[in-house]
């Protein structure tokens, strides 16, 4: 039986888990104790209370940056998410059906990468664009990944459009479109919307609805002209 000066065996496992998931109940479960035991020990041990606070701070900072510990499995096996607790602090929490979680996030970004269209991606997960934009403001890591996915989708769209235009000039059979749910006009529109949100310093800005509508035919002509220049350069 440990003495009063000997730390309990569960303490190290509890603090390590707390520093990864920032969730007291989950850390207690991993350490094999009831969360009330941890609270009682913290109350009578100032040093442990300091270690507790440091672990929580480190865990919340990591979660706010989007670093989700893969080995932290919740007891009820429900999908998990990073969110604010009732006290307003960041932690890993289990989510119920219809709530935001890792699976929903992956589905959203997968659809966004396929279409470059936020409304379409929001429709795929049954959420409003307002809720998604609000989440983007709160979570920097989510915001950064959003930008990366949109940039990737735009590059794929541009490559698909150039390939289609080049096949038309070469009178070849066009390949299967990479974006099966989009027409050429829609693909051009998505690419133009993305370009319209770029600032001179490279950071994204909200699309200005007051801007004149995109001239799709003009963009098509520019793409064909670019392909013709590429073809002439290849023949030299």
Write the layout of secondary structure elements.
Elements: H1 10-21, H2 24-31, H3 35-44, H4 46-64, E1 80-84, E2 90-94, H5 102-115, H6 118-125, H7 129-138, H8 140-169, H9 184-196, H10 216-235
Antiparallel strand pairs: 1-2
Structural features:
236 residues; mainly alpha; 2 domains; two-stranded antiparallel ribbon; 61% helix; elongated; DNA binding HTH domain-containing protein
Give structural notes:
It comes from Sphingorhabdus contaminans. This is DNA binding HTH domain-containing protein. With 236 residues, the chain is mostly helical. The protein folds into 2 domains: 10-94, no CATH class; 102-235, no CATH class. α8 (140-169) packs across α9 and α8 (140-169) crosses α10. Strands 1-2 form a two-stranded antiparallel ribbon. A hairpin with a 5-residue loop joins β1 and β2. The model is unreliable at 71-77 and 204-210 (pLDDT under 50). It has 10 helices and 2 strands, in the order ααααββαααααα.
Counted by DSSP, the helix tally is 10
Radius of gyration: 25 Å
CA-based shape: elongated
State the end-to-end distance. Answer: 86 Å
**Structurally, how many domains make up the residues?**
2
For the report, how would you describe the main beta sheet? Answer: 2 strands, antiparallel
Helix-strand category: mainly alpha
Quote the beta fraction.
Answer: under 5%
